[in-house]
Amino acid sequence: MSEDTLVSVENLKKHYTSTKTLPDRLFRRTSPPIKAVDGVSFEITAGKTLGLVGESGCGKSTTGETILALRSPTGGTVKFDGKKIGDLSDTEVKNFRRRTGMVFQDPFASLNPRMTAGQIIREPLSVHDVGTQDEQRDRSKSLLKRVGLSADQYDRYPHEFSGGQQQRIAIARALAVEPDFLVLDEPVSALDVSVQAQILNLLADLQTDFGLAYLFIAHDLSVVRYVSDRVAVMYLGNIAEIGPTEAIFERPQHPYTKALLESVPRARLSESDREITTLEDDVPSPRNPPSGCRFRTRCPVVIPPTDIDIDQTAYREVMDLRERIEAGTLTATDVDSTTSNTADAGTPSQQSMTANSVWPGEISSSLHGDNAVAVKTARAELRDGNRQAAIETLRDRFETVCEHDRPEHSNKTHHSAACHLRH
Ligand SMILES: Nc1ncnc2c1ncn2[C@@H]1O[C@H](COP(=O)(O)OP(=O)(O)OP(=O)(O)O)[C@@H](O)[C@H]1O
């Protein structure tokens, strides 16, 4: 941890356990928890911005809310200014609350409609007992001006403001008690594009003036690139890659970061022919995330076992096939019994089989030698009702390091990707 680290997050976990319904209780059913955040580590430097990006549902908001102790962690630690949040005394908790704050995506929903702009901004001053009534009023008015509104708007209600102005009020409220750290959860994504830049510039000015540190949560990569000193890329409850902004955008290391960047529309004409890898498949459920590397089920460069010879397209097809058998979405009834059978599965003389002969309708790549034999054997086993044997046959031959080992970050302080290809 460096001297000017303000927030330090180590192996943070937040799992949501669902409340049991009556049938669940009657039948003693338990559903696995949602692993929204599952072992996240990073640091935020005083006065700097860490951007947190990732697809919807990957755990960004939960990370921000858990860091601010709005949710209790399932595991791991958060330190603020060197002190562990869970160990704070009542006075220290109050001080932590004063020094931290949050700005939400939907400004209207985050402002009390029955309070005026002035009352909203004053509220934290009252809660923390800062100043006299007159001083609180004066400070609220000067904050209104500081965020680009007018002191005359003090007595107006939220609905009398535009979306951008409402977000300015929410920012003023967050600044009222002079915090050091703000979690900004998608602060511009609900706003018109024309207003977004104004709010981003305001946040940048305030950061410079008050030395604020930000955790800036967003799914819009161009926004994150614009505001962040460092960027953490999150996937299914884990940090896939973290590093300085330019390094992440110019020299991404993790296949997920690359795919995320590739999925951004190309701005320059010169780039219009660039081949793109889009993230088409759905993100797996955080209730039952893939073992090993969380991204392996969608990864375009998943690593085959070192002792087999297979190209990436064929390997991905075989992996997807096994996933479907394991998930129960490919069953015996889906196997056409008129073609292929167990007998021809392991014929040693069959060194190469055409795509059609290996698993009609499922495998379109050509597989050779023992790869083809394993897939044909699994097919026959599934058709004969022996699903577990089919899974084992495929696992024995094709199990990958990406599947049984969770990749670690090699370099926690600079630029690092949690990917087996980096080791
Ligand atoms: N209070 C909750 N109870 C149960 N599950 C939750 C709760 N809050 C979030 N989740 C689940 O946890 C996972 C992570 O959600 P989270 O909102 O943190 O992700 P996110 O990356 O911020 O998504 P988005 O960009 O859509 O806001 C999701 O699967 C979500 O459905």
From TrEMBL:
Signal peptide per UniProt: none
Residue span(s) of domain ABC transporter: 7-261
Biased composition annotated in UniProt, kind: Basic residues: 412-423
Gene Ontology MF terms: ATP binding; ATP hydrolysis activity
Residue stretches in coiled coil: none
GO terms classed as biological process: peptide transport; transmembrane transport
InterPro entries: AAA+_ATPase, ABC_transp_ATP-bind, ABC_transporter-like_ATP-bd, ABC_transporter-like_CS, Oligopep_ABC_C, P-loop_NTPase
Annotated region (Disordered), positions in chain: 272-292, 330-355, 403-423
SMART domains found in the cross-reference section: AAA
Keywords carried by this UniProt record: ATP-binding, Nucleotide-binding, Transport
Family designation: Belongs to the ABC transporter superfamily.
Name of the protein described by the UniProt record: ABC-type transport system ATP-binding protein (Probable substrate dipeptide/oligopeptide)
Gene: dppF1
